[in-house]
Amino acid sequence: MKILHLVFHPDLNASRVNNTWKKQLEQSGKVATSRDMYLEYPDFKIDIEKEQALLLSHDRIVIQFPIYWWSMTPLLKKWLDDVLQYQFAYGSKGDKLKGKDLQIICSAGGQAKNYNGFHMFATVPEVLKPFQLTANLAKMNYSQPLYMFNADACGEDEVVKYGQKWVEVIDDPRRADGLEYANAKIHEELIDVYAQLGL
Ligand SMILES: Cc1cc2nc3c(=O)[nH]c(=O)nc-3n(C[C@H](O)[C@H](O)[C@H](O)COP(=O)(O)O)c2cc1C
């Protein structure tokens, strides 16, 4: 499986979380191509042909970013608008991304207890709904998003621990099917629980 890793952080050098994760994923050797997209396009002038060619030459597209204002960072929005064109990503002949996997990785400054889907807060999968809908339109496999909360205040070890988790699962072929993956994980966790109970 050939993995394309696109990181959309406005200033990766000033980033703690996303920079650490990018390095961990790069160093894992599991990612074929890893790119700092703001470094690539500081003027927001996206090379559409190049981006489309990269999408075509990889199987799993991993998009990583910090959540800003319950949304994606601006270059990522521009990248979606520019690159996922009619008759490329959608339309009568627009099936070029069909069957590829879309994996989102993101960090949120808010705390888990607040991301409860109630009052002022949505859940992270709700915030990421546009990506799920985009994957649906492009006939891509939308994988369960990977994310962490409390990204500004948590300790360095926590950031690294999450990065290790991402490295562990990033090339898991089962993630192509979100439901199958969730079922398999629940099954594994139940086996653990039963083992702990001595059953
Ligand atoms: C402009 C801006 C908007 C933000 N909006 C949100 C938000 O809506 N929800 C949230 O949980 N965190 C928000 N944050 C916190 C970021 O998600 C957090 O700083 C980031 O995930 C940390 O990652 P980094 O160390 O890679 O920069 C915001 C941060 C900035 C700078």
Automatic annotation (TrEMBL):
Keywords linked to the UniProt accession: Oxidoreductase
InterPro entries to which the protein is assigned, alphabetical: Flavodoxin_fold, Flavoprotein-like_sf, KefG/KefF
Matching Pfam families: Flavodoxin_2
PANTHER family: GLUTATHIONE-REGULATED POTASSIUM-EFFLUX SYSTEM ANCILLARY PROTEIN KEFG
Flavodoxin-like fold domain span: 1-165
Organism: Pseudoalteromonas lipolytica
Protein name: NAD(P)H-dependent oxidoreductase
Lineage per the UniProt record: Bacteria, Pseudomonadati, Pseudomonadota, Gammaproteobacteria, Alteromonadales
Keyword set includes Disulfide bond: no
